[in-house]
Amino acid sequence: MKKKISLLRVINQKIIFMKKLPILLIFALLGTFFFSGCGKYDEGPSISLRSRTSRISGEWKPTKELVNSDPQTFDANSRVKIDKGGTVTFINGSYSATGTWAFTSNDEKVTFTSTYGGFSSSTEYTIKRLSNSELFMERQDGNDLYRFEYEKL
């Protein structure tokens, strides 16, 4: 008699597990989808609970500029203000230009378009790192690779 009760218990546990299996599979698939989509940029972060738009929005100051890995002199007082609504303002001393920004290439790049003195320019950057406090971008111009690193104020 004990064997029948034990056997029934084992069968009952398997039935309960089989009923829960589809739910477990759904959570596993959602978890895989969520975590695989978070590490979009080469230099991280691998996971962020804030949207890309929230992370890129704010006022940024430059911390490093490189051309082909060589450090460049830059104005540490310059700023870039990026608004969630799609506007951007570049400030460098008395120079100020406004324009727009948008993610491109499946949010792996960002394009800035601005107008100053009647001239309009549009530049696309590859985002290397986008965290709550750091923004690293690169752009290729001919044989030269430009890298810009910013920290949020």
Task: Characterise the protein shown here.
It is elongated and about 85 Å long. Helices cover 26% and strands 45% of the residues. Strands 1-3-4-5-6-7-8-9 form an 8-stranded antiparallel barrel. By secondary structure, it is an alpha+beta fold.
The structure class reads alpha+beta
What is the H/E order? HHEEEEEEEEE
Average residue pLDDT: 84
C-alpha end-to-end distance: 74 Å
Uncertain segments? none
Shape category: elongated
In percent, how helical is the residue content?
A: 25-40%
Please state how the strands of the largest beta sheet are arranged side by side: 1-3-4-5-6-7-8-9
Number of DSSP strand runs? 9
Distinct helical segment count: 2
Quaternary arrangement of the chains shown?
Answer: single chain
Q: Could you tell me the radius of gyration in angstroms?
A: 25 Å
Q: What proportion strand?
A: over 45%
The biggest beta sheet is recorded as: 8 strands, antiparallel, barrel
